[in-house]
Amino acid sequence: MLIRYSKIFIIQNDIPSANEAVFDRTENVREYIEAITTELTNNSVTRQYCFDEQYETAYNDVIFIITKINALCSIPDEDERKVGIAEELKSYIESRPAHRLSSIEKEFNDNHTQLNPIPKGVLIIAETINEEGSCKIILAKADYAEFMEEQSGDKKLGLPTKKKIYKAISIEYVLNNHNYDISNVLVCDTSSRDAKYWWKSFLELKELRTNELNTIKAYKAIKDKVISPIRKEHKTDFTNLFNLNLVYFSSNDNFNIEEYIQKIRDYIPIDPNLNKDSLINKLHNLPETEKFDRTFQKQPTSISDRMRRQVVRLADNLDLSIKGQIENLQNVIKADVDTQGNKMVVIYSDEGYEHFIRNQQ
């Protein structure tokens, strides 16, 4: 991946104002931007958006930036026009998108005094091209922190080496008949706060898929493509994972594919022959193959499915009936073998204990 253009702008959201950040050691800043763009490129928790046709400001800003960057890249370094184009682009970003972001953040903070304010930070704008010739524009809001210099003890502002990114957007584009076509708009958000000020107010985007549609598609895809195929050979694990899936989608917090994969990693199979790696590999690719986002807010009311009554035959005239969702089912019902080699099913239940202990007395 080659970074063909990059600038950092300080966002003062209390004034509001925006200006280019100037650093003495540009090689360190270059490394910082490379790390940021690599982190975004490799980030697997993103959501697809598209520009809202009702608005034009953000879209026009992106097209202007793309046009000027490509003009810069097409001119030799010794060409005197290059300096003028670079200055025009810098001034445009300062006065348009960067300043607009500072104003939007100030308005958000003023209108949401009950929340922690959006911190001051930097807007990173970069353009990259990969080995296949695919071009991307990246806009990222990152931290700009106060630190104490080791030798002098002076307080200064700078970019933290941990590279904390709050929000970012990656936009692929191609040149088509002298026009730039936008495609694959991906938004990454590492914070838990309401991000509408970023993707809706600042970037003027709309979700490619609603939370409801994402919930329906993700739930069905996981159930049909990952869990159901193990039903025949791993009946108990099927029940546990079917239950896990329902419980996970019954809350209205955020869906996160990496978080879900971690739940499968943490799951301890009843059948040691269950291939968890196969399930995890399927989950990694599922958002792309089944067309749902890798992160979204779950909508539990969109799931009409409920856990089917699971009846497990234990012996003649004795069945175990599971009628609904049981969180951590594998910790409630366990298979075991006693010291004489007798196989048994252990059920942890205070109510069941009281019932059967009375019958034994």
Structure description:
With 361 residues, the chain is an alpha+beta fold. The protein has 2 domains: 2-207, no CATH class; 210-361, no CATH class. It is built from 9 helices and 16 strands. The protein has helices at 26-42, 57-74, 81-111, 196-202, 211-227, 235-249, 257-266, 276-290, 350-360, and strands at residues 2-12, 17-20, 47-51, 121-129, 135-143, 145-148, 155-158, 165-176, 179-189, 205-207, 254-256, 295-297, 310-315, 318-322, 333-337, 343-347. An 8-stranded antiparallel sheet has the order 2-1-4-5-8-9-3-10, with helices on both faces. Helix 7 runs antiparallel to helix 8. The mean pLDDT is 88.
Report mean pLDDT, rounded to a whole number: 88
**Helix coverage percent of residues?**
25-40%
Total domains = 2
Structural Rg: 27 Å
